[in-house]
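so i finally got all the pieces together for this one. its two components total, 541 residues if u count the protein bits. some of the lines might not be protein, just check the labels. i wanna see the whole assembly predicted at once instead of chain by chain like last time, that was a mess tbh
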Amino acid sequence: MIFRNLPVPTSVRERVTPRHLVAFGLGWLALFFVLPILVLVWQSLGIGTGEPLSAYQQALSGLYLWTIVRSFYYGIATTIVTLALAYAFSYFVVFWTSMKNLFLILVVLPLWIAYIIRYLGIQLFFSPTGPFVDLFGTDFGFLFSTRGVILGMTIAYLPFAILPIYNSMNAIDRDHIHASRVLGAGSLRTVYSVVFPLSLSGIVAAGLIVFILSSGSFLAPAVLGSSENFMIANMIERSYTELFNIELAAALSVIYTIILLALIAVFNSYVNLGEVFENI
Amino acid sequence: MKLYKVAEQFAAWLVAVIVLSLLLVPIVMIVLTSLTPESFPTIPDGDVTLYWYSEMLSNTELMQALVTSFLVATCAAILSGIVGTVAAIGFVRSEISYREELATLMLLPLMISPVITGLAIIQFSSQADLPSGYPTLIIGHSILTLPYVFLIVRSRLVTFDDDLREASRVLGANGLETSLNITLPVISPTVISAMVISFVVSFGEFTATQFLIAPDATTVPVIIYTMLRAGLSPEISALSTLLIAIMVLGALISGAVTRST
């Protein structure tokens, strides 16, 4: 089908420039995303309630402060475990197997399945009637604990770590590795002085993504943890739906987002996040 | 030396098996426990039944949620497909200052925790007097899926052959005709694949959605979460298996569409 001589006035069809298209996209985002976030920031200030900024005082004390600390602690722990597994796995796929595509498909497949379903699967695996307890007689404290939450997030975010690391490692010129071997380096020495430095950008990208996603996770603590494992996202939800304290929920959101965006800004000079997400 | 090699190979395969089991066992668990004849979700030993599927199909609340999820995901995919494609074309073809920074702005919905996005949108929608339920759900999901379309279409456009457009213009077509006859047919498989991804993301989204639902518009993931709070049951596994099937189908469609080019 060819479109010709459409009854559109010349003034319209020749005047729509790429700038207008950009403005349309950004305008949509501004109206339904940026503006709502700004309204949330305004509400967090609590102006007109008699006690402005009291929500921030509350959010930065006691239980809530601990939850913020815990979110970042869980985020860091998850990032470390995930990076270690993803690095070893990528190394295996790049250098040890000829079935690269099969392994990559199996890694990408879980990304299509909703988080809630995958977390449910993990809970089923460790549940009292599940195969793990059947086999060992105990779940070794995996369910409804810190361990369970970190294991759950590791499983959920592993593909996001494997893909950038795999890509950067796969792009390494094999001649560099041969050169290292010819010059007498063993495989461990080759990994740490050739492969590791050349795949560092993938590691940083993977670490950043996993940290962003895991520190803001709601479902992992909700499905695999107890109230003692609540993270910032759970506190925001609870302040809003149970305590009806919108100022507190908004203040927690603002504090968390500022810390996270500052972190992204620091790393953005090193890795371009657009490219990072594009690789996924 | 030889022994060392064998050990290295063994370690490499061990890591691969551990990582793949971590990724795939949870999904397999869902499918297996949906077939159990027991009243609690356990792996069936020999006896399998589809009882929990018939139970699920006769649950009107679940079926209503499936319809809602389907409608919301379809509308959100169309919306983010249009907005994301238009924005991607604009960003690739224009020379504006701060282009990279503004493009990063388009990715913000991926970086901000969905709890915050959900909270912000429901607050905004109630203050702007938007009708709750479908309109809020659809707009919210279109925002959450916008970065996917934007990224995927943009990376396709970067490899687009500009000579094709030039040829069309030289042959006398105007800007609009060139877009409709040249650009869109070339990028349409990518756009469709991006919309399928948006559909699947929207279908499974829970964290932001829990704020956006209304009593007459509840989506499947929210139902799963609510049922989960009441306790594990094979019916949840059956419903989740249905979702897995839909999502894997999405993956296959997206793969087929991209491969056909």
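The CA atoms of residues 68 and 219 of chain B lie 6 Å apart.
The mean pLDDT of chain B is 92.
anyway lmk what u think
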